[in-house]
Structure formats: structure tokens, C-alpha cells
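Quick note —
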Amino acid sequence: MRILGYSGLNHDSSVALLEDGKLIFACESEKIRRAKHEISPFPDQAIRKLLSVTGLELSDIDALAVNYDAGFLANWGYMPHLWACWRQRNADLGIIANCAVISASHSKALIRYSMSGTIPPIRRVRHHLAHLASSFLYSPYNESAVAVIDASGELDCTTTYHCTGRRITRLSAMTLPTDSLGSVYMMATRHLGYRLIGDEYKVMGLASFGEADPVFRRFFEELIILEANGRYRVNPRLAGHMSSSGCQFPEAVAKRLGGYHKGGPEMFTDAHKSFARELQRRIEEAILHVIQHLRKTSGSRNLCLAGGVALNCVANGKLKAESGFDNIFVPPAPHDAGTSIGAAAYLHYYADGLARPDPLLHAYLGQSFSIESVEAEILRCALPVRRLADPAQEAARRLALGEVIGWFQGATEFGPRALGNRSILADPRAPEMKDQVNRRIKEREGYRPFAPSVLEEAAEEYFPGLGASPYMLFIVPASEKARAEIPAVVHIDGTARPQVVSAKINPLYHRLISCFAETTGVPAVLNTSFNVAGEPIVNTPADAIRCFFGSGLDALIMGPFLVEKPK
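Predicted structure written out below.
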């Protein structure tokens, strides 16, 4: 049984293949089409790449699983929510229209236009159920509480569940037209002059530089109102009609907040930083309010998170410390990209009653390239080829000398984080390395932090209480030892977003860090995604070579080959 899952007609479209319950391939469309946070009605190029990589034809696929189902419009249980949209007239009737358009887009006519051959049956999965499956079904838990928090899916914004085996019990829901934490964060991101989609993490990083501000504090408390039984509501008077306003605050509200920021990040004032701080604090309070109640109502000791808001690593760290759950699982792609694997897994396990997929142990699910194909690409670019006897040892040596290198190995990671296969690496010991990589390599805002990749054996010493963190999705306090020894990857507030590297999961990357530790005494490296500002993470050898020569990287190691720039 082969199920091809896809996320379409939304940002961060992606594809995934499940074969007899085994996850064979998963990749975001942006990494293939080279368009960051790609929005497309149907990710046909990504599907073609999936079929090419796996050697399949479309006729070999038994079903297409799509991450959206607007058939709920016919469900009388949603009439109160639809009536609420109707009362807001033209402003939020766009929500209903959007649902209808998305539903219509996933049609055989569109897919037949995009692809040739026999079209498999198209099976729709509710958006939040696709999110749920992307987390719970790939977690190590047999039962768990689940929270999905995003901008919206159909009408749902925040939903909570208790899952045991094949049983899903829905416990609560906050819905459109207003109650969207994800949309609030997007509105605040736009208020600071950033992009609507994809720049929220920049605001999260900026928040650490702000001071407490009673005016902004009061505003966000009025905007996001916490209620009994783990519920919240978003004040429509302050949020306005989010769907029709392009996720911007109403003009009067924007003026109250000091007006929209129109300068670049270098022109952020103390007020902008405090605005970001109070936004982040209120979002954390709302999430914690929901999750602590979920702990009581579910009775579970385990928590699975999904939805775009689960990429808020600061909030995740707070949940780890204060939620009351013993164990928390966040998949490598909790945002919309992850719903491709979620939709496929939901059909396989819940709808068709087949065996549960195995727990997800790593995120290396995309394209990989043979040594021969990597060498051929280097020669095609007329570059000298130097084959290394020990790529990990050479990479560690160069890092210890202060070089910044591109590291391209194995299969592309699924999700927004580079986890040691498509990474830019540097020495974390020098405080100035952060500014150097931001300015010379990544071409991005100087205030933004970098993450450490730390050996599993040393993680507790540097980040006490962290536990397993293979996907770099928790921000936690750094120990005094970490602050002293690896300052380039410790943020201004004394926290870090570590990736814990296991020898069993990624032996080559683990060896690189081990070699660095033998030379320097420090079992960690600075790790950031192999790309420059505005571009997706590199996927192919050609992408890597292009990024290498278009940036200030000192060296590129692809497979066993070293590429250097002419002196």
C-alpha cells in the first residue's frame, strides 16, 4: 500500500511517501523549486521529484492524501462558527471562501492538468488531524495528550486531544473567525516590518533584547484574554478582521502601538524590542494556559505538539519546564510541511486500520546523492576535485582554525532545521564568530542567534535537563560551562537551542564533533542551515556549490570531496 501525502494551496507545501506504513521520502517543495515558503495549488514538481527518486510512476500510488478537507462546511456542528463569520460580513466571509477554494483545488481535474497518467484516488484529511498524526503517530508514545496550535486549518486554530491507540478524543477547540494565536503572531511580525509568513522566528529572537513594558504588556493582555478551563479568546476589537486585513492590526490599533515599522532591522528602537518581548511573553502565557489544563483533563504524562506555533522554541522550552508533562515530543516539521506525512499516516492507520508507523528517529528523509554524482557535479562546474581520506577529521581541523565551512552529506533533512547534513559549521568558542557568520556568510540581522550541535554524551553538562533534542526545537538555559566555553551559540538571555547528536543516528556528524572535541576540548560546534538570507536550505550538490561561491564560506566538504575557492 503506497500513500503519497501532500500539503498544497498553502505555505510550506511538501510531499511524502508512505509504503506499507514505512516513511520512505519526505521533502518540502521549496527545497526543490528554490522558492522559500512556497505557496502552490498542487506541488507537482515535488511529486515528480519524489517519483523520480523512488523509481515509481503515479500509477504505482494507491492513494493521494491531502492535508485539508473543506467538506466540514456541510457539517451542522460548525454552523455557530459559520454564523460568526457571516455576522462579520465581507471581512471574514473570506474564511469560508478560502476553505471552498482549497477544497476545490484538490480535484482530479487540477491534478490531471499538472500530472500525466492515471490519477490515484484523492482522500482528504482534516488539517488538524493531519497535524495530530504527524506528531502522535511518529512519537514513541502509545498514549498521549496532543495539542495543535497554528494560524488556522479549516476553522480550527487551537485543538487539544487525548490519543490512545486508534482512539482520538477531542477535548477542546478555539476557532475562527478570531481565536488564532498563530495569526496574532503573524500580525505582530508584520507590525515590525517583517514578512507575513516565515519571519516569526526573527521576532522570537528579537524579544530577548527587549525590556518589560507595562503599556505593551497591557495591550497584549487585552488582545489575548485567558479564560477558565484552559481556554483563551482573541479580542476582535483589537485584532480586527484578520483574514481580510492581510493579518495587519487595524489602523487605529497600529497607531496606538506607535505605527507600523517601515525601516530595516538596523532601525529597531528599544520600543520595537519591548513590543516583541511582550508579544512573546503573552503567547507563552496563552500556550502554557492551554497545555497545563490539557495535562489535567487528559491525565497523560506525555505531550505531542504540532502546528506552526510549535516552531516557537522558546515556548517549547517553557513547556518543558512548567507544563507538568514528563515527556514532550515535537516532530522535525510541526508546521504545515509536516502535514504531508501526517495526512498519509492518518489514512494508513486511522482510516484504513493498518499497522502504526514506526516512531520517527531522524529527519534525514529527503534526497541523497552518490559519491559519483557529487564528483560529476564538481567536475561539471570545472572545479578541481580533492578527495579526502577522512572528511570529518578535515572539517574539524578547519573549524578549530577558525574557518567556516559548508557541510553537505547524506539525505536532506525534512523540516526547517539543518541537522548536520545540509549545514554551515563554525567554531562556537569565539564570541565574535556569531557576528562574523551573520555578516559574512548568512547576510542576515546581527542580533539573530545560532544553535549548537552537541554530542549526546556531553549534552547534560552543557544544557542540564534537556534530554533528547534531535530536531533543535527547544530553547533552554545554558549552563555556566556552556556560557564560558561556547559563547557564540548562547543567546543574550543565556539560553540556546541545542541539537543533541547521537552516534547511532548520524555517525559521520557525531565523528566530526568528536574530532573537534579531541582538538579543542569542546564537544560542540556552531550549526546553522546551509543557505543565505531569503533562500531555502540547499538540496542538491549544484545548490551547495552555488551557495558556496555566492557567500563568504571558506571551504565546502561534499561527501568525501573538498571544494575551495581560488586563492
